[in-house]
Task: inverse folding
């Protein structure tokens, strides 16, 4: 569905995307990375808004630049707002469907049904300037899905949504994926991606750090230290014992939280209760983040920065 | 593609029915009428009106070098009014209206960050460009013609029909031509579009077009002025002896019209090509 071959995008002397090679089949993917990591640049390349300085981009087998055929099958919800504030949500969505090539009647129906799907029907005849941020976000999503595209690209779609709105949007997107359609979904928040898909692309500084399912990326992590966070009554005392026992590769203390990294998690888990008991330390909370995407992300970022 | 252009046209017209834009429409229509009325009623003593109107037979004008008979006075007034109407409607109204509408056609979308919604539609960029161009023309031409329809009879030149019909044709050429120029400026220089459009208008259309040399032929006003002179049988004061003839040239009507149409098509084509080649990122919406 998406194929990027050694794609580099330069903005003058600044690198937006750096030697990015990627091949994705149809499906749902989360594009994950911190702010400024190159997510929007990558989406701009995929939607044909930008042309690569080096390399090639193909979406559904075609170059996306000025590609009318591709745009008929593509739905895009950009990160910024940018809607006309002086028109109603209905008029805005209808206008964009007319631009999609629909007749006036088709655009009417498509705009109404998509706004209903994102729970905006009751407010659709109000000017966009009167919408809350969450309502604008839902209107943005409505314009992206109204023409029933095969491939939906969303840039930070949860921004500004309240918990109910997030839940509703998650449901809409899961239903969308359930219909067998493709989705590429950019976010800088892991739990947002995890709620939608387990397939993700992790990028940082314009480079692809990892791709695949969480399990596939975990397999890359064999031999890398696991990170454990312990909230306890005497973190300094426990830290000195761990160092004496050579049980950790690194550790840091912040307040009552001791964060450690180890390449022998099994040994640590086996011995730790005894050490804690000997020292009389009370453990209030122990958290091994390594089963979550967050740990994966942190480890990959450290690898990228050369810290591991 | 045509449907997409129609969609933009329809949407822009719907937005154009706001109170502010309606007021602008009325201002554009009323402006030439107001100026002609001022001239008509504040300078009555030199006016020689046809069909039994009051005539000041003792008046001796020296505008063109000596006493004038009544027919000459008629003609002086007719020429004065025709040039004035030409300056007000095919030039000022057309320029001002199209400048305000078409120059920000693309830059406004970029500033508002709405461009990306339009650009990811099939032929979206081209449709927006042409749709806004058509909307601008159809918005500016009616107040210009309404203004002409009131101002030309008000001028009482005795040549109402010919002047009105000539000016209507000039408006129909001026609006597309100026709209194409301002649109192109907005596409090629989206960050400084309005500044450049005003600078172009002042330097090229207001100054360069009046330089009696070959360079004035690159301006739109030269072509329109030459057509006005031919269609209304107007002269430049001083005539050939002063070298002023080069302000209206000697080319045929069809050559002027052909050049104007080719200029319009060339500018629109260049704008479309430039727009399709441009990259506008969604993060900053700035051209890269």
Result:
């Amino acid at each position: 569905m998406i194929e990027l071959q050694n794609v580099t995008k330069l903005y003058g002397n600044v690198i937006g995307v750096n030697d990015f090679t990627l091949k994705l089949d149809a499906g749902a993917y989360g594009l994950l990375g911190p702010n400024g990591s190159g997510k929007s640049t990558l989406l701009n390349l995929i939607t044909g808004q930008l042309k690569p300085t080096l390399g090639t981009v193909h979406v559904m087998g075609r170059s996306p630049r000025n590609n009318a055929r591709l745009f008929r099958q593509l739905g895009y919800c950009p990160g910024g707002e940018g809607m006309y504030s002086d028109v109603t949500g209905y008029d805005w969505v209808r206008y964009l469907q007319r631009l999609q090539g629909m007749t006036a009647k088709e655009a009417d129906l498509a705009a109404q049904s998509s706004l209903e799907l994102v729970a905006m029907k009751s407010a659709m005849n109000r000017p966009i300037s009167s919408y809350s941020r969450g309502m604008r976000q839902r209107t943005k999503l409505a314009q992206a899905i109204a023409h029933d595209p095969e491939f939906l690209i969303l840039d930070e779609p949860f921004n500004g949504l309240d918990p109910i709105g997030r839940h509703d949007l998650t449901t809409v997107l899961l239903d969308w994926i359930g219909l067998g359609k493709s989705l590429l979904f950019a976010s800088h928040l892991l739990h947002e991606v995890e709620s939608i898909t387990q397939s993700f692309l992790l990028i940082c500084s314009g480079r692809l750090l990892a791709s695949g399912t969480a399990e596939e990326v975990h397999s890359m992590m064999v031999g890398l230290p696991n990170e454990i966070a312990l909230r306890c009554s005497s973190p300094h005392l426990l830290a000195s014992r761990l160092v004496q026992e050579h049980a950790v590769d690194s550790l840091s203390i912040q307040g009552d939280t001791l964060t450690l990294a180890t390449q022998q998690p099994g040994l640590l888990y086996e011995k730790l209760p005894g050490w804690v008991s000997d020292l009389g330390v009370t453990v209030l909370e122990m958290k091994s983040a390594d089963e979550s995407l967050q740990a994966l992300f942190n480890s990959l970022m450290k690898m990228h920065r050369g810290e591991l | 593609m045509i449907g997409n252009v129609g969609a933009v046209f329809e949407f822009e017209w719907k937005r154009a029915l706001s109170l502010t834009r309606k007021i602008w429409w009325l201002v554009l229509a009323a402006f030439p009428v107001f100026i002609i009325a001022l001239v008509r009623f504040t300078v009555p003593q030199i006016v020689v009106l046809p069909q039994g109107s009051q005539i000041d037979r003792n008046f001796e004008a020296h505008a063109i070098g000596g006493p004038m008979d009544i027919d000459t006075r008629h003609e002086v007034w007719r020429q004065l009014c025709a040039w004035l109407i030409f300056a007000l409607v095919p030039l000022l109204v057309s320029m001002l209206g199209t400048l305000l509408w078409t120059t920000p056609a693309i830059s406004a979308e970029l500033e508002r960050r709405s461009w990306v919604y339009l650009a990811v539609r099939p032929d979206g960029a081209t449709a927006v460009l042409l749709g806004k161009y058509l909307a601008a023309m159809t918005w500016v031409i009616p107040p210009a013609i309404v203004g002409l329809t009131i101002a030309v009879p008000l001028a009482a030149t005795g040549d109402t029909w010919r002047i009105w019909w000539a000016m209507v044709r000039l408006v129909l050429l001026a609006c597309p031509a100026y709209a194409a120029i301002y649109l192109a400026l907005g596409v090629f220089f989206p960050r400084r579009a309005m500044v450049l459009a005003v600078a172009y208008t002042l330097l090229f259309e207001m100054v360069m077009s009046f330089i009696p040399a070959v360079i004035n032929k690159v301006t739109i006003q030269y072509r329109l002025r030459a057509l006005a002179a031919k269609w209304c049988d107007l002269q430049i004061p001083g005539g050939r002896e002063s070298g002023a003839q080069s302000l209206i040239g000697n080319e045929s009507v069809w050559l002027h019209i052909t050049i104007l149409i080719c200029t319009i098509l060339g500018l629109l084509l260049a704008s479309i090509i430039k727009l399709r080649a441009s990259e506008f990122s969604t993060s900053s919406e700035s051209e890269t």
In short: Chain B is about 70% helix and 0% strand.
